[in-house]
Structures
1.
Amino acid sequence: MFFERPDSGEIAVLVHIDFNDKNESYGPEEFVELAISAGADPVAVVTGSRQRPDARYFIGTGKLAEIKDIVDREEAQVVLFDHALSPSQERNLESALQCRVLDRTGLILDIFAQRARTHEGKLQVELAQLQHTSTRLIRGWTHLERQKGGIGMRGPGETQLETDRRLLRERIKAIQKRLSKVDSQRDQNRRSRDRSSVPTVSLVGYTNAGKSTLFNRATGADVFAADQLFATLDPTLRRLDVEQIGSIVLADTVGFIRQLPHRLIKAFQATLRESSEADLLLHIVDAADIYRDQNMAHVDTVLAEIGADEVPTLIVFNKIDALPMSEPRIDRDAEGNPLRVWLSARDGQGIDLLKQAIAELLAVDVFSETLYLSSKYGRLRAMLFEHGAVKSERFDEAGRFVLDVKLPKKDYLQILARAGMSEDQIEAV
């Protein structure tokens, strides 16, 4: 007879096992933050080391007995593993420990379910949850394997488990269809921004690196920001005026994390495209984090997975207020181009330097000139207005149109080609 599962669990025992992998060398500190962020109350962190996971329990029988003693003593309601567990391992652990067991993926999904605020975000989370749950339907409920019985319940022989799987598949298809419509709407919005020649700058980085705080500081927005993992799930876009290049669109996105479940990456594909199709990425890094380099590597891995690794990137080291004797600055390469910006989003130090670096990187391909056009160039004038490139217009003594224009250089060259003209024919200052 299986245990009664509680609706929610607060008292938690955390398990972190070291498998002696030099590429994945980290402590349980982040997992503790994850548990707290999910609303759990960690009463113990069980650590250990193994060469490889046990096929039955993931851990050895000795470690299992240790966890069981802690669960009984602390009356814990849930045991959280800082690893990915197979459905059978979860089921065996729940049977042995007589409490709910969640792996790292399940915990992250729970946090995402709590934080999703928009309709799209909720659909994305539900999709990932259903895909995760579909492999864990039986989770100790052996009665689901029996066929329905009784008057009015006899059917073609479909078991309750099969029914649940079919309903899950149907719900997954319905959510995917609705998300495809959202994706189409996002594509339309991106095309509209492309036509208006407004560059897009996307904030990316490890979770809790300070992206939303920086976003609010730069744009004056009121996006929810907190010192916790995954405070932001839903993307937010705001217009930001930058000297030399005019308006840009700044996008705040979901934070990345080590061992981010692949299902979540796929579920948030539409959202993450704001990063892959941006003109510039701002990789926000917690400069005071002891795992700074590893976190940056994990972000780079996810960016490569979503096809954003070719987008120009500016490294932004945030939280310099937590570093001793550190001042806002711009680090440049041998050619003088910005590579890194050091700032504090919380205190507002270095925000102007960040805007300066963005302007330098985006202005490289921006055509910003004053054009003198005679009346015979009326078609070119109309095309520039149609493109939204004309910032102001006046006339000189000779009766010529004097246009202050600003647009991407490639768009300017395309307009000239459509008008059947070359740069040599246009007088500019």
Note: The longest strand covers residues 41-49.
2.
Amino acid sequence: MNNPIKVALCGLGTVGSAVFRLINDKSELFKRRFGAEIKIVAVSARDKSKERDICLNDVAWFDDGIKMARESDANVVVELVGGSEGVALEVCRAALSTGKDIVTANKALLAVHGFDLAKQADEGSRSIGYEAAVAGGIPLIKALREGLVCNEVQSLYGILNGTSNFILTEMRNKGLDFETVLKDAQMLGYAEADPEFDINGVDAGHKLALLTALAFETKPDFSSMSVEGISNISELDIRFADELGYRIKLLGIARRGPEGTQQSVRPCMIPKELPMANVDGVFNAIAFQGDDTGPVFLEGRGAGAGPTASAVIADLSDLARGLRLPTFGVPIKELKLGNPASEDTAVGRFYVRLMVLDRPGVFADVAAILREQDVSMEAILQRTRAPGAPVPVVMTTHEVNQLAIKKAIDQFSSLDTVLEEPRMIKIENLGL
């Protein structure tokens, strides 16, 4: 039997309590499978008096998580506080400085401070496990760090936020607007009271930064990423997408090419027949393209107490087996700068929707702008209107430089016949 894994657990919210229960309820299973006992020796949370469905009698309580990380007799600290700064960061720094390993579900922390923490871990021969930080119960980190270790990953894409995916799914299935579905998601517990990080793409961006770093052997680089959320997607756009043979998904995409690494999070239209188009509700999915494996597609629940706690245990099991891998797949000295490439240089197809006054000369003005920017239309749709109502005009383009279509959008906005901000959504065939 290997030496026991003694855990100091920082944070006893939904996930923290689930981790506590799993470790206690399945201790015998872990002994059989990992060859070592996993036990919680210390905990820390904001309110000791809070009612919790767990028994804390046999563990040390610390009001201060940072003190716990320094002074407890644990050999691994599980950080489940969240946030990129403050307690979460200091707990991790304190744990590493006193020779403890870290397991965390905190994607924001690692997206912002991952390189510095990885350097500290590397220098102290410690480990940072973060399977729970990306897509909950889907073993994405293991897949990249171990399963695809012999592959050069050239590109990856995925649905990385369950809240946004649920909202887009409900808008499509029920014909409801964004605000209505968001309220429903909050009532069901799929969206936070403050859902900004989910709906504006930041949560997905943090996760993408970690996956890109691991896949491409680069420093995490969230700050240079192009991020767009779903709050501007209308039920009208979803209907037009369906008519054109597409579904709208919030995708995180990373590609590397001769000009550098492109990372983006934004709503995309993807063909209905693709597996990614049929990942609905709160589910997540990710696809990689390995040079030896070819395409790899993984799908599962991306959040929730059970899947996230399970991912935390997976990292603890590695420690129980004596497995400590570099945080981002290679020693810290081998990590490269990502050399971020502007998306404006990329070529692709686009969906454009204008709400216009139905009067002579409108199409001539639109056509003149497209001609000026060298944008070629693939298809155009126009719907009838009620008297005096604006008319939706939908266009899809052939492949065009992204900067050119952005310039055309700016010019459309200046027309007095265009009544709303034009909508532009990239069409992704996901031919990795």
Note: The chain has three domains: 5-133, 140-301, 344-427.
